[in-house]
Specification:
Helix content: 10-25%
CATH topology of the largest domain: Dipeptide-binding Protein, domain 3
Number of strands: 17
Oligomer: single chain
Structural class: alpha+beta
CATH superfamily of the largest domain: Dipeptide-binding Protein, Domain 3
Radius of gyration: 25 Å
Shape: globular
Number of domains: 3
Number of helices: 15
Length: 588
């Protein structure tokens, strides 16, 4: 469960339930999300994950101002500009949040929340209107106080200029194709876009907004890579030393204030982000006190144990890649006698798996959270199916006679196919197979390497895949691609439950997907997605296991106000709220 804390851009938060971008992530594949290789993991180790807790008082003490914080991650940006080629990656997005504003931000619950605008447009608040001719008008109202670092107001013209940039569709989310825009109207503090047909894709527009007055006469792709236009965020770029660090300094014209105290933000004078391309070196720098915050991408339990042993605080926030188990519903199953189409059998598999232990097997670290949802969030309909070996045995006993099988003498075979390019998913699969065998399944693990075979070009039985989680509704439909016959992901078509089952629940599920395709209302999409997810849980078509952790290691004696975030692209989202603790300030 995410900790609740004061974070960046907290005024007028509109709930916009996060959507999943479901894509198969093969360990070791060069897709820009997973590391190319993983080191072997030691046995599970328990690590302290305590966090500093402030004592509640009637009048909280003032937050100290000033000072510099040094943080570090493993990547260096290829550019400072997220709207040019090379800019669409995690480290560029993370750093850009300090100096480039946008219409919205993404909070730690993976919800879209307002940043530059007073509220996010929806049909409920009048920001989205369907005209009598079937076109759709969407209006963004810009905060009156929002200005650039040179004092020029952030305006509707800035939004319109950003909209016209060639790079915008790519930077606003992969594969987003907007309907034709019929007209754009701007004012000093608003922009209205008229689309020729309704679309939910408007949500992703204006992740970043560019100052027209500063860049209109420049070569946008050439001039803004190592230098940056006037900031609209809490900090401005001061100096980039390639191979070493990026220094950010306070934007003295930053327009936002602390929602609790009303104080102007940010609190710090400056932040230095160092580039340290090694988990070991990152954690050594934390242990020595050279840095106050580190984002190690794939540390070992032993490395984390050493760092926390020096007083550092470990946070393992459920991240944006979820591991889930899928059943094949095809006729050509490699086991030769699968019971996958039996609901009791699938529920038996679910009840036999302790998802918390499977989560711990990923990094060999106890305390990782499991998940009960295919959508963003840790709590969902799979909570009704907890780990229960006795229930698993009873369900298996009920499933076997209906299939004409004596499971006591011939345990049902389970062949769990996983990628073998790294050790973590193999460890999870091996742990799952052990649990299944203990409950009466004849389970084994089929390990393959990505470079050797397409995992879905040949028949499979069960598999564990990684699914990427992002915020917003525009790609919510893709949350359900493994079960949707109309999905464009063809290799798994014959194995999809909805096309293989053909029962009333499958028909109802497909009807919900059709409604989602026609909807442009975030609230309606939330309701439809929740109903579709409930069907998948009741039918046990898939089993969400856990979300891989986004790890941060913090020295609370050096930095306060930090709020962990699931996405590595948003780890600096609370940067305007960071401050140096009073004790550290008084110690010099």
């Amino acid at each position: 469960m995410l900790r609740q804390a004061r974070g960046r851009r907290t005024a007028t938060l509109q709930q916009a339930t996060a959507a999943l971008v479901m894509s198969i992530i093969l360990v070791g594949a060069c897709d820009g999300i997973e590391p190319a290789a993983e080191t072997a993991r030691p046995p599970t180790t328990a690590l302290p994950t305590t966090s500093a807790v402030r004592t509640a008082t009637t009048t909280p003490p003032p937050i100290p101002r000033g000072g510099e914080i040094v943080v570090a991650g493993d990547q260096e940006p290829p550019t400072l500009n997220p709207l040019v080629p090379g800019g669409d990656n995690d480290i560029v997005f993370a750093l850009a949040q300090a100096y480039i504003p946008g219409a919205y931000d993404v909070n730690p619950d993976l919800e879209l929340v307002p940043d530059l605008v007073t509220e996010l447009p929806t049909p409920e608040n009048g920001g989205v209107i369907i005209e009598p001719d079937g076109t759709m008008a969407v209006t963004w109202e810009i905060r009156q106080e929002a200005v650039w670092a040179d004092g020029v107001p952030i305006s509707g013209d800035d939004f319109a200029y950003t909209l016209a940039l060639p790079a915008v569709p790519r930077a606003n989310g992969p594969d987003v194709t907007l309907p034709e825009i019929a007209a754009v109207a701007t004012s000093a503090k608003s922009i209205t876009i008229h689309f020729t047909e309704p679309t939910i894709d408007y949500e992703w527009l204006f992740r970043w907004v560019v100052p027209r007055h500063a860049v209109a006469e420049s070569d946008f792709e050439r001039d803004w890579n190592t230098a940056m236009w006037p900031s609209g965020g809490p900090f401005a770029v001061d100096e980039w030393i390639p191979g070493e660090s990026l220094r950010l300094v306070r934007n003295e014209h930053y327009w936002n204030t602390d929602a609790t105290s009303g104080e102007r933000l940010p609190y710090l004078d400056s932040v230095v982000y160092r580039f340290i391309p090694s988990d070991t070196r990152l954690l050594d720098a934390i242990s020595s006190g050279d840095i106050a915050l580190a984002f190690p991408p794939s540390p070992t339990a032993a490395e984390l144990d050493r760092a926390t042993g020096t007083g550092a605080q470990l946070d393992m926030t459920p991240g944006t890649i979820e591991e889930a188990l899928l059943f094949s519903f095809g006729d050509d199953n490699p086991t030769g006698s699968t019971l996958n189409r039996s609901l009791d059998y699938r529920r038996a598999v679910a009840s036999a798996l302790d998802r918390k232990i499977l989560a711990a097997a990923w990094l060999g670290i106890e305390g990782m959270a499991s998940t009960d949802s295919l959508l963003a969030g840790d709590v969902g309909p799979w909570a009704a199916y907890p780990y229960d070996p006795a229930a698993a045995a009873n369900l298996l006993a009920a499933a076997c006679p209906s299939a004409g099988r004596d499971c006591a003498t011939h345990p049902p075979p389970v062949r769990l196919r996983v990628t073998g390019n790294g050790t973590d998913r193999v460890a999870v699969a091996a742990t799952a197979a052990t649990m299944l065998r203990a409950t009466g399944f004849a389970a084994d693990v089929d390990v393959f390497t990505v470079i050797d075979v397409d995992p879905y070009s040949s028949p499979w039985d069960l598999t564990i895949v990684g699914r990427q989680v992002t915020a917003g509704h525009d790609r919510l439909l893709e949350s359900f691609w493994p079960f949707d016959p109309d999905s464009s992901f063809q290799p798994m078509y014959e194995y999809r439950w909805a096309s293989a089952d053909g029962g009333p629940e499958a028909a109802r599920f497909l009807g919900l997907l059709d409604e989602m395709r026609r909807s442009f209302d975030p609230a309606a999409l939330d309701r439809l997605a929740s109903a579709a997810e409930q069907i998948l849980a009741d039918e046990m078509v898939a089993i969400p296991l856990f979300r891989r952790p986004t790890i941060s290691v913090l020295r609370t004696d050096r930095l306060a106000g930090f709020v962990p975030h699931p996405s590595r692209a948003d780890v600096l989202w609370s940067i305007e709220q960071w401050y140096v603790p009073s004790a550290a300030t008084s110690d010099g």
